[in-house]
Amino acid sequence: MNAASKSARRTAIVTGSTSGIGLGIAEALAASGCNVVLNSFTDRDEDHAMADELGARHGIEARYLGADMSDPAACRGLVEATAEAFGSVDILVNNAGIQHVAPVEEFPVDKWNAILAINLSASFHTIAAAVPHMKRAGKGRIVNIASAHGLRASPFKSAYVAAKHGIVGLTKTVALELAEEKITCNAICPGYVLTPLVEAQIPDQMKVHRMDRETVVREVMLERQPTREFVTVEEIGGLVVFLCTDHAAQITGTALPVDGGWTAQ
Question: What is the pTM for the complete model shown?
């Protein structure tokens, strides 16, 4: 790809994007014609091969840039490395996240700190680094992947619920600060999406609720989603792409549920 064609494309960073929702978002943005930066905390040959394959399949340029999203300097460095490689940071999708389930009095302090760092503080750092680049370009899109738990609480998820509520508040504040800059900032609040992160929660939920797998999925997870269906990564990816279009120029500061009706109750 020559320099002119590369610079003509918008560049999107998607944090936590080698699997699950993040990878689905990266696929959707690549399919829409954006250059894409994949990210995780590792730096393996297969990470770079995944980016190469994504780029070849969609005819865009994709790179893998490893960064530990619990490290503020690494978060900001990811943005600067993207700007240096592509010349711009047009779209920032904050998706990286981890989870732990435990009663509040038993919640490990190290898990609390890690969840707040990766699920909330990382977004602050990447946004703070990306905004100057977007201002220089005269436009930009920021999409934070929150959760239905950014709008509703559940037991045994104190850190996750606190972080996701924080993401919704951060989204609103950033949107107001940038309202006249042609830079929008929105949060997407998915219900349960069947990803590796959700799969990993099922054994813990089985233990906490003393239920088998099928009962936990039906009565604990999907019980709150009136559609009784998991959200798909393709649905989340499609909404991100829409929020990055000109049609969404006046949508900013929102927390958009994609939850099968969970938060309508």
Answer: 0.92
Neighbours of 84 (CB within 10 A): 8
Residue 192 annotated as catalytic: no
The strand ranges marked E within 81-235 are: 91-94, 140-145, 183-190
Domain span at residue 218? Answer: 193-230
Asked if residues 69 and 96 have their Cβ atoms less than 8 Å apart, the reply is yes
For residue 265, is it within any domain? Answer: no
Tell me, yes or no, whether 176 lies in a domain.
yes
Q: Are residues 206 and 104 in the same domain?
A: no
170 in Cβ contact with 121 (< 8 Å): no
CATH, residue 114: 3.40.50.720
Query: What torsion do the CA atoms of 255, 60, 135, 13 make, to the nearest 10 degrees?
Result: 50
> Which one of 160, 192, 230, 262 is the catalytic residue?
160
Q: What is the pLDDT of residues 184-234, one digit of tens each?
A: 999 999 999 988 777 888 899 899 999 999 899 888 889 889 998 889 999
Query: Domain count of the chain?
Result: 2
